[in-house]
Model the fold of this input.
Amino acid sequence: MGTGALLAPLIFVVICLVFGAILKSVLKKSKFPYTVALFVFGISIGLLDRFSLLNAPLVKSAIDFAGNMDPDLILYLFLPLLIFDGAYELDLHVFKKSLLNSTLLAGPGLVIAMFMTGALIMGVSYFLPERGQWNWNYALMFGALISATDPVAVVALLKELGTSKRFSTLVDAESMLNDGTGIVLFMLFFGVYSTAGISELPPLLNFILVVFGGALLGWLTARLTIWFLKQFNEDEAVQNSIIIVASYITFILAQSYLNVSGVIALVTFGLTVNNVGRPRLKPEVNKFMVQFWELMAYMANTLIFIIVGVVIALKVDVTWRSLLFLLIVYIGVNIVRLLMILLLFPIMKKTGYGLSHRESFILAWGGLRGALGLTLALMVSYTLDIPEEIRRQILLLTGGIVTLTLAINATTMPWLLQKLGLAKTSLAKLNVDYSIKKQISDASYKYLDKLKKKEALQDSNWEMVEEYLPEKVSAPPLSLSVDILADIRLRVLKKEQKVCWELFNEGIISRKSLQLLLATLSEHYDRDGHLPLSYRNWMFKYYKEVFYIRWFKKIKLVRNLFDKYSHEWVINGYDLGRGFIITQRESMKLIDEFINSGALGDKAKGFLNELKQEIELNMKNITDVLTTLSAEYPLSYRCGVTLKAIRMLLANEKRMINQFASDAVLSSNEAEKMIDDVDDRYDDLTARHINQLLHRFKTSNE
Done:
């Protein structure tokens, strides 16, 4: 093997990442999707190679390598990274509420689309005699592979467009879940020509096994991975290596050995690691993981979209007649998806978060196809038992529809969102944004006045300095409605969420308290800020459960049985309450900043004062609960206060060590050893049995 062939993969990766960085920089202020630009670049270099317009042998061999990649290699190399990253970022609460609608689209919806697409192909081939080699088996096989939206393409687009969390989760979840359905249906017809796809089970039972088997495998590997992560809790690099390895093992086990859905296994794996494992990891590890997976997803996206473009440019043969065939099928596939969604619309609008008519059109138009469909088409093209003309047409249609959905659907999505009013910024949001920008602007001008008084800066050219001040913003029309109240509530809730994670990262609240506090925020996000801030049913139910069992203390026979249970509830309840008080104080500061800025006008102060009253009610309610806790369970309450004091002491020690390391007083190795010592003491604290602490308190009291 020559040097060129050996270096081809490396050269291709370098070319992709260099041009990806250039495109990312060029498109920074453009609305043109980055992934589409990568796809166009891939087609361009593929065409240059195909028509022998490249004079660099090494570059040509690199492009040839990408264009002739085994379809299975594309699946196994990129999907574990991209699907895990997408699932890891899904909000479990939003995902659960969107699950029924996502399942409708990925299950019955995909079956409907497959049959309608198959009928479309048979109809077109009837009117175009030269396409007449199609039969129902080939048509339905194509319908299965082309009806499944591609998770890689959809996830990448939604990230760039910044659509609402609820809607993007629905689209994201559908694209991931329908991979399982799509592959099962595809293999049902493709298996006739490939022994690898044959299953002795009935189709329905096989489908259930693929979906639920994948989910079970993902959950099991996630739990095992979380256990391993806890064993290496001091090393971020090792933990991320474990997650990468576990992602690939999950996918390989599912696809190659257990014949279940690899993507559904990865989705379950990512959701479990995110929602069960993430709060158990140390803050430094979580921060490192977020940055690391952002980098991995960026690199994988860059490579896969360029590869898809290269494959289409090198493999697909185009004639004018085939272009007409492609255009008809492309239009038909979009109509089929719209009809499928309209058929399911009466159910979808009443379940989960619901679905509006405008969102249904976006959902239909946003059904992008990408690497997954093309990979299945490549598998067909390599199967000699299928007639050559059918193989060629399936590759042409799939490659063409991938190209057209990325070139037309993806690029026009921002325009369509704007036209349908789904990207329109509300007047309430404009007012709140103006308030924030005005505060920044006023602070900048005040700081400039201070700078002008500094003797060391007297020779500055102040006219030039003033050019770098933020632009003055004009006030939008004041929206004195419930919308502005809801929008400010959402800002306050976002602040609360940030404070919750900060408290957890600093060791001030426990993992249990973090989860409960975040759960109360989910209720408000579901209602878009239209619930009062004082509505915290989810959290206060926790305390009702504690007081519900207090009468057991009077029954001697069962008192000991409930001692440990009640102690843990009280300790967690104290921790939760103190954390909630801190978040409410920070929320009050934010409201005061809005009031003091005056940017929303005097008339808006009534709304802001209403929010202050809601926060004050929260603080009163939680204070009353903590007072009752201390009276009803004095020993457990004291234990909770002591545990909190220890956590805060250790958190302060860690902050000091990090500060000394930042100031170069301590070397990184010395700081790491000292932090490990703090972590060991913290682990010892959390592992210690509650009753041991209580026994110590009892002894000291005696």
Q: What stands out?
A: The longest helix spans residues 556-597.
